[in-house]
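Box 4.2: Ligand-aware structure prediction
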Amino acid sequence: MHDNALSRRDLMKYGVLASAALALPFERVVRAKTASDRIAISKFPKPFTVPFAVPPEAVPVKRSSTTDYYTVTMRSAMTEILPGMKTETWSYDGSFGGPTIRATRGRPAVVRHVNALPRVHPRLGYESWTSVHLHGSASLPEYDGYASDVTRTGEYKDYHYPNSQDARTLWYHDHGVHHTAENAYMGLAAMYTMHDDLEQSLPIPHGRYDVPLIVRDAMFDRDGQLLYDDGGHSGIFGDVILVNGRPWPVMKVERRKYRFRILNGSISRGFRFQLSTGDPFVFIGTDAGLMPQPRSVTSYRHGIAERYEVIIDFAKYKAGQRVVLKNLGVPNSEDFDTTGDVMAFDVVGDATDLSGNAVPDVLNPNAPAMDLTAAMARKTRKFEFIRKDGIWTVNGKTWADVVASDYEYVWADPGLGDVEIWEFENKSGGWWHPVHVHLVDFRILDRNGKPPSPWELGGKDTVYVGENETVRMVVKFGPNTGRYMIHCHNLVHEDHDMMAQFRVGPPADGHHPVYAAPASSGPAPTALGDDDDSIG
Ligand code: C2O
Ligand code: CU
Ligand code: CU
């Protein structure tokens, strides 16, 4: 069985042993430093003094007649985040906050992810295996960044992305089992945008007026290094807010509409965003892309890993006016004096280009997830997100149960094409869970029996399950069969060990998430894509 599989020793290493360590009382878990080692606030830049920047775009190493090929190297780099200090970051191609991959629907991509990280984290001491998940993509199981499908230092793996879904905002980030939080915190997270004809044809902002905002928090020690303190596996709450890797930046804007793709890339922090003017955000997109129609909202809560596309219209302001993006905070995300500000927009003058300066009343009448109804469902399943004996679990079980079963154990086994209602329950008032389901897009039916928030009226893959909330959603399983993860996207919860899986279709389908396409040893050959006829 499983000839090219991880050995039993590896299984122990990646799952069972790690879980045994987690069973230690929290006091005995070695913690690098505590929050009292934080750098002085006087070393922070004054808010809105660091210039805003958009992350760089990845350039394909090759374009064949059908496919775009990329090579991305995960590596350590010294990055100036706080002015005058060099911080070690781990990122894709050494780009903290990037690089963005831009995809076109119907043109698949192959991304070779090379793990060139230090073998052991210099301060936290863990082995730096990785797995790369393209969040928002219906990838095959073996290319989905399954947590236990790891790539070690010196290895690489080619990830195949179909790019067959509607235009949307995706992101790729680390998913390596038990170290996702640390790896993502160090910077292994970036955007991936998918474009299609419908989206390109709408008169909404495009090009330089279509702007990614990856918002996250961080904290730094006295040496300016990223400080990792997860408060006994409850969460990381930094006092520095970064947008595209820069602290409280300021962006110059023209008097016109801008489209912002906002991703909460934090490990544990939720935001409640509001503009200092009290003016609305006009929501046009959610996780799964364009909403059926726009929705106008003046403040909203934004959980980890959710993506929202919003239009902000600066036309009504005068040149010289500053508009601040504020964070009002959410329960159970520790606030600091410095976390109420996110970034600023300085209005500099009239628009130099007025194309794509509209928001049509109808955006995407055929958003597939939004056609699902409760009446179509064959089955209802309940998932309780619960802390049990100090461990974060889903229905009392964890990823350790998956590993112990050689990846067979599943929480749900819908057939291909089945529609089901899934109910996510959080009975606690002490924490919330941003719950993510891989592979699918879903429609939120209700939350505690009430309709979803206006900004949630689009296809979703991650949902804010707040304190004492029960959220119901309707979901159709496909287009692929195989095993996929469901987990809390508070990455500290995920790593310890609130991660489950479901299987679409029969147990064996040739797409084993760990054994079908294991990582290869480096150095990576340069012949990526040579089997294809090249036009580039
Ligand atoms: Cu964004 Cu399973 O993750
Ligand atoms: Cu995902
Ligand atoms: Cu959680």
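In the box above, the bound molecule is copper (II) ion. The chain has three domains: 3-32+46-198, 207-350, 368-504.
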